[in-house]
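Module 6 notes. Inverse folding takes a fixed backbone as the condition and produces residue identities as the prediction. Think of it as a translation problem where the source language is geometry and the target language is the twenty amino acids. Below is one complete input and output pair. Work through it position by position during the lab.
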């Protein structure tokens, strides 16, 4: 899931910083990753996703 999330954001045309990418890909909390993945479908920015 951690690898899929940046792809979803990219597919939506959202810019993801290296810091944000690192935060996402290093996350091992499946519950948090699931929340982010669901939110990735609706947020306007990656900052909004990780807030």
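Target side of the pair, the amino acids:
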């Amino acid at each position: 899931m951690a690898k899929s999330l940046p792809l979803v954001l990219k597919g939506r045309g959202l810019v993801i910083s290296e810091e944000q990418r690192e935060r996402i890909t290093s996350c091992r909390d499946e519950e948090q990753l699931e929340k982010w993945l669901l939110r990735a479908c609706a947020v306007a920015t990656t900052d909004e996703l990780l807030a």
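Reference fact for the lab report: The helical segments are 4-11, 18-26, 30-40, 46-50.
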